[in-house]
């Protein structure tokens, strides 16, 4: 069945995706898969997801809109269809999430021909995993404050510094790195590199444990790492501009090379309704019989539908007041909605919400308390939602810049 | 029928909206609106009967532009535009807080379109010709969605005699006729009743909203000829149910337009008002709530267009989306109104500042045709 707004080509591709996904859905693994790619920690999990992304890439569901010479499939306007269908099919998510969403579009926009041909094909197939070295202990929200230095040495650069919260660094071959090449100007003193990570002299990766008990992000220490100049992305001193490209994709205002799979917001709402209907309350009633809880669930259902329709409206120019107004809302809306859905699930479960992953009596396998804790990752990462609100207020509504 | 990519909002729809926007900007700037509705707080709140704010010339000009006929079939003298077009015009009217019977007339139109009787077609033709109309279908219990006005229709030789009261009738003093629901022996009927018909009296309510009026319409022995019965027995509820998604969408569209005014005005104030050596929008305690106004408003607007598009192309999904749109819009109305007063500070609490005009319109719209919790409860029943 075609989506209501599809072109003929999109409708055919959607049909193809549905068929392919139905026939190629991987068997569930014997071990637990983490809630998202950035919590992957074991080799089993890694291999399973690696093989799945590779297969999806081979079938044209990843890198769909990327040029063929860079390992893509050379289409236009089909990637979002693949992502939607993977979400709908509830298949596993893509492993190389930072690569697909951030590194690939940044390299595509700012890379040389040689860089694109070298880095993109193994990125799309997940043969090489990417991580993002932006944040530092002293530079999170204030990203332009990064201190990791890159000093020129003939045809090479020498890199020293300390990155934190680097998702997937423990599996990564490559990192997109924002570094300081001059202290004269906070913004113009930045330069962007792609640097090798795994098994490289001068790079130490140390896992950090998240509040969920899982790992997945890391500290990365650079001690006199030597990288050739050909790993520089765009010009010296242009790092901030390049980083803005990355962030535009990271925050969902543009579409990358295709993530997908995992659980969609709509599916989450359906799960919430199912949970409410199945959860027993004293007196033989269910949580769904409680008008207050039901009202909360419907508020979330409306937000989910509103989000979907806003994405749709964002593509109709004449119904958009300002060009960036709707795209810049995406990250705030999804992260807070997912958080509130999980929080409401905990309210529905009541005392049973105390049972965490691994408890055999936990409703829905203990996934809701995990989802709730984990949801804070998304309201902090990619620029905290406070920073996102600054950006919306300043760039869309034109209010004075906050510090 | 598949839903079009662009909500069905093409060049024609855009033209109509832009024309409406220009017309209202040119003819109803805020200072004009203020002299019209808020010129004198004494006359607004102290005279025994609330004055009716209505620039009749402006309304006639809007009618001349064809606004009342936008959604009416061509055979009945209209231009038969899809609901997305109507919603966008109503949005502009909300943004300008246009004091006019536009919304009430369009709502009545939607019900008449659903009746499909000769009497309904005749009534539609009158509206296309410029007559303002309003629905008188609500009883004291204010359940908007069924034809339950506390009016009885006694069958006589030729037609009916109506007795009773319809409540919460919008823009009653601007309407040329009412679409009245009445209980007959065989079930509810809808009748077209002229505002000046013998036995009809309009008791204005005192409402906070300065841009609209509302009344109880009292009917005492009002004769209704068969050719004024727009929905015969039992079909009244059906017609209302059929029109409901459109009505909810239009009310929500009005809220969204008014909300956009509240957002832009509050933003502008935050950009210009200085305290502590900064424009107040520099402070996040001001900036972030304004961003939240935008987030809530955009959700409601997207749902309005989705609902309108569903009415036009996928009616099976229209009621769900329309309830969502009205619920989201009602919540947004409450939030935007609160923030718009608060962030204007002391001046925002004065009669002199324009903010209150929109706040009161929003407060009224919020409850019109069911509030947010009502619609969410109905939505939950379908889950
Ligand atoms: C799950 C997860 C994965 C991540 N993955 C990566 C990754 O792969 N690569 C990478 O580079 N980084 C990653 N990060 C780091 C992330 O980008 C930063 O944590 C984030 O930008 C916030 O910076 P911070 O932690 O230093 O917090 P701070 O900047 O110290 O902020 C602390 C608090 O103060 C608020 N705050 C700070 N400044 C302001 C301001 N001006 N106005 C209002 N409020 C303000 C923040 O919103 C926050 O609530 C990840 C983070 C998480 C949680």
Provide a descriptive summary of the structure in words.
The complex is a heterodimer of chains A (403) and B (383). By secondary structure, chain A is an alpha+beta fold. Chain A is 41% helix and 13% strand. Chain A has eleven helices and eight strands. Chain A has a four-stranded mixed β-sheet. In chain A, strand 6 and strand 7 (217-228) form a beta hairpin. The longest helix of chain A has 23 residues, at 291-313. Chain B is α+β, with helices and mostly antiparallel strands. Chain B has 13 helices and ten strands. Chain B has a four-stranded mixed β-sheet with strand order 1-4-5-8. In chain B, strand 2 (150-156) and strand 3 (159-170) form a beta hairpin. Chain B is globular and about 80 Å long. The model of chain B has no long low-confidence stretch (mean pLDDT 95). The chains are: A alpha+beta (403), B alpha+beta (383). The A-B interface holds A 2, 4-5, 273, 291, 294-295, 297-299, 301-303, 305-307, 309-310, 312-313, 315-316, 318-319, 321, 325-326, 329, 332-333, 386, 389-390, 392-394, 396-402 and B 2-7, 9, 14, 260, 267, 270-271, 278-279, 281-284, 286-288, 290-292, 294-295, 298-303, 305-306, 313-314, 321, 324, 327-328, 373, 376-377, 379-380, 383.
Biggest β-sheet: strands ordered side by side in the sheet of chain B: 1-4-5-8
Q: Percent of residues of chain B in helical segments?
A: 40-55%
Give the chain pair forming the largest contact, with residue counts: A-B, 43 and 46 residues
Report the strand count of chain A. 8
Question: What gross morphology of chain B would you assign?
Answer: globular
H/E element order of chain B: HHHHHHHEEEEEEEEHEEHHHHH
Number of contiguous helices of chain B:
13
Percent strand of chain A: 5-15%
The CA-CA distance between the termini of chain A, in Å, is 50 Å
